[in-house]
Design goal:
Elements lengths: L3 E4 L3 H8 L3 E2 L8 E4 L4 E7 L5 E8 L15 E3 L17 H6 L1 E6 L1 E6 L3 E7 L5 E10 L7 E10 L10 E3 L7 H5 L5 H5 L10 E5 L29
């Protein structure tokens, strides 16, 4: 799963990395080191004119048809529900967004927890931004203003992430971004992009247990609290 992540890039880095055409809304004054569900985060999507837009959405997907305030899902399994034997492209909750409202969620890294509630941050070895595969929705039934939300898609963990958890966010390489964002792309083609990211391009960093409290938002949360773990090339 993905329950917390880091989003500490400024507007310039986000624009360069994701080739942003337009900034609709961005909380530029605050770098985020411990984004939790229901928080707002920056996402990249296409606007009505097909331009790459950077905006802020709330974490926890609320479809347009939803009329109650029940806790929304923050993650969507790429494989869908095993019990119902259906993939994300057929799941009633996620399918409409999967067909035409896909987004990228920039992240410096994401957190998972090991034994003893020890948090680990998973990130690229070179420190560059990750692009988590996401879905976005809007809802006009639950508030006076339209509510725009997102969820992060998860896949089976790669060998590195599997040392802590059996799931991880779907991470897309730059060459897949255009296809993922294209609302006219065939669902089967974009679903094929959802695969575990190469473990040998990542590292796992044990960090402060201060991450466990979602109210903590400090840059020192990024400091290693132990030995960095990597796997051999080709994993």
């Amino acid at each position: 799963m993905c329950g917390r992540f880091v989003q500490d890039a400024d507007a310039q880095e986000l624009q360069l990395r994701f080739e942003i055409d337009r900034i609709a809304r961005l909380d530029e004054g605050r770098r985020r080191y411990n984004i939790a569900p229901t928080n707002e985060a920056a996402v990249v999507r296409l606007d009505a004119e097909g331009r790459r837009e950077l905006t802020m959405l709330r974490w926890g997907l609320v479809p347009a048809w939803k009329k109650d305030g029940a806790r929304p899902p923050i993650n969507a399994r790429a494989e869908g529900s095993a019990e119902r034997n259906e993939g994300i492209e057929k799941n009633r909750y996620f399918a409409p967004a999967f067909r035409s409202r896909r987004c990228l969620v920039p992240a410096r890294g994401f957190y998972e927890w090991g034994p003893g509630k020890q948090p680990w941050r998973f990130e690229r070895r070179d420190g560059s931004l990750l692009a988590l595969a996401g879905l976005w929705e809007w809802n006009e039934k639950l508030a006076e203003e339209p509510l725009e939300t997102f969820a992060v898609i998860t896949v089976a963990a790669n060998p590195l992430a599997a040392t802590v958890h059996d799931r991880m966010p779907a991470i897309l390489p730059p060459e897949a971004w255009a296809a993922w964002l294209d609302p006219h792309a065939e669902p089967a083609a974009v679903k094929a992009l959802l695969a575990p990211f190469s473990a040998d391009q990542m590292q796992a960093v044990p960090v402060s247990k201060g991450v466990n409290d979602a109210r903590n938002e400090r840059p020192d949360l990024l400091e290693p609290a132990g030995e960095v773990v990597r796997v051999a090339q080709g994993s």
